[in-house]
Amino acid sequence: MAANILLVEDEPAIQELIAANLGRAGHHVVRAGDAETAQRIVREALPDLVLLDWMLPGMSGIELARRLRADERTRTIPIIMLTARGEEQDKVAGLEMGADDYITKPFSPRELVARIKAVLRRRAPQATEDPVVLGGLSLDPATHRVAAGERPVTLGPTEFRLLHFLMTHPERVHSRAQLLDQVWGDHVFVEERTVDVHVRRLRAALEPVGHDGLIQTVRGSGYRLSAQPAVAGV
Amino acid sequence: MAANILLVEDEPAIQELIAANLGRAGHHVVRAGDAETAQRIVREALPDLVLLDWMLPGMSGIELARRLRADERTRTIPIIMLTARGEEQDKVAGLEMGADDYITKPFSPRELVARIKAVLRRRAPQATEDPVVLGGLSLDPATHRVAAGERPVTLGPTEFRLLHFLMTHPERVHSRAQLLDQVWGDHVFVEERTVDVHVRRLRAALEPVGHDGLIQTVRGSGYRLSAQPAVAGV
DNA sequence: CAGGAAATTGACGATTTTGTGACAGGTCAC
DNA sequence: GTGACCTGTCACAAAATCGTCAATTTCCTG
Question: I want to staple A54 with a disulfide (CB 3.0 to 4.6 A). Which of A12, A61, A105, B137 is the partner?
């Protein structure tokens, strides 16, 4: 959903306007005023998407697009080009150059956001959709259902993701920091204790269906999901 | 990956050439030499994809595209347009009209096949004409009718397509974005919340005939049609 | 066994997501 | 035209979920 976007636009007012709108939509925006700067930033930061004005001082947008498509590392980064009404040959050239979409100025912020979303959606890799079964517990990402045997288990979104991660990485201890990275996303700023609370909620949801010791606490390290019972001392 | 493809092309030699190549790639090809014929065939056969030459005698390709997009039954059928080099304004107009892709003559057979594959991949298999029955609810695409047992259910076109898609892909959770792609078509830009509204209308239409929990909300993910209850009461 | 760090727990306000009713345009058959 | 749909969007209401805190409890260490 949120993405790193490089905005290449020489007109400061328009740049500001677009950046503000994208920011409001939850995207992280990096700006460049000319193609050379843009090229450098792309190499360094590898953004998720490039918003490229066609009319630029110095190197043209079309040339930048060509170079990005020529470089192995930047080849797959989606490009949406911004064109003024009437520059039809540019649009076509841009699409032939490998732009993924174009949008004609003036455009509504909403349309821009929608197009970005659509392009990103097409590129997004399909998440693992395979059902996971482990010790009588089954979780199916496709149907978004969890069941202990026959009995369904109701979970909130975060609990669901947490359980999904734990079930796909069982028998292993995960620190709170790791869980925050994997389940919440590494850009989120939340307390580590929050993990505890969600683990507790998960346990509470699993307990009435007879899966008590499934999630084990490893004092000082983190949590572990294990089909094996937590051993005292062997 | 075999698909039913309608080829609209007035030049017999080119028509033959393309048809041969597509046939070799495992596709089933139906041909039309003009837009009027094409329109009729689309209505009858509902192909998986339309390959549309832009330069046609009589009704232009662009007009045909517009009509296909206007009819709710054919709205989501992907269109790839064939253009001659230099017809730049046509390409732009075509994409604005809702074509999914374009390809410039002359093109290599391999490129054509690749583009077709790409466009088809973006879309789940086109729903069939077969009636669907699920949990006492029956939907017949041919007659455009929905009934709960004996009682008929009245739906608007969008609601119908939405229900049709959900019934042909039951149990699975669909995000709003996916539903927009599949039901509205991925060239349409509408708010995601629009899906909510239509789901609500669909629920409202289904409720008086005793199909309450059929469409379930999966918080944070989307919607799911399921014969099974969302949660098991104690 | 005491001290203290680490983890559990219950509560709660804030935030996010979804449900709902209303409405302004647009289309189409008449 | 014109009246009966249909649609997409909005604003607001209702729900569900989230993150945090402080009070406890648990568990190790010495």
Answer: A61
- Averaged pLDDT for residues A135-139: 89
- Compare all CA atoms of chain A with the CA of B172 and give the residue at the minimum distance: A143
**pLDDT of the residue at B46:** 82
H or E segment at A105? strand A101-105
Nucleotide nearest to B72 (CA to C1'): D6
- All structural domains of chain A, each given as residue ranges with its CATH number in brackets, are 4-123 (3.40.50.2300), 132-225 (1.10.10.10)
Q: Tell me the per-residue pLDDT of A36-86, one tens digit each, with 9 for 90 and over.
A: 899 999 988 889 899 988 877 777 788 888 888 877 788 778 888 887 755
Report if CB A219 to strand D is under 7 Å.
yes
Protein-covered nucleotides on strand C (Cβ within 7 A):
6-11, 17-22, 28
Cβ within 8 Å, pair A156-B224: no
Which of A149, B70, B72, B64 has the alpha carbon at shortest distance from B81?
B64
Q: What does the buried/exposed string (b/e) look like for B114-146 if buried means 16 or more CB atoms within 10 Å of the residue's CB?
A: ebbeebbeebeebbeeeebebeebbbebeeeeb
The Cα–Cα gap between A164 and A153 comes to: 13
In this predicted model, what pLDDT tens digit does every residue of B37-63 receive, in sequence order? Answer: 888 888 888 888 899 887 777 667 777
| Interface residue of B90, B92, B186 to substitute, partner A, most A CBs within 10 Å | B92
ipTM over 0.85: no
Closest CA to A143 of A159, A160, A118: A160
Q: How much is the pLDDT for A92?
A: 54
> Tokens for A204?
């509470």
The answer to whether residue A188 scores a pLDDT higher than 90 is no
How confident is residue B130, by pLDDT bands cut at 50, 70 and 90? confident
**Which chain B residue has its CA at the smallest distance from A150's CA?**
B232
* A121 interfaces chain B, CB cutoff of 8 Å: yes
Nearest CB to B232 within list A95, A151, A156: A151
Nearest nucleotide, CA B194 to C1': D8
CA distances from residue A13 to A23, A65, A81, A167 in whole angstroms, order as listed: 15, 23, 18, 49
**CB contact (8 A) between residue B189 and residue A114:** yes
- Count of CB pairs separated by less than 8 Å, A with B: 47
Provide, in whole angstroms, the distance separating residue B169's CA from nucleotide D4's C1'.
33
Instruction: Give the integer Cα–Cα distance in Å for B34 and B19.
Output: 16
Higher pLDDT, B65 or A171: A171
Contacts of A124 in chain B (CB under 8 A): none
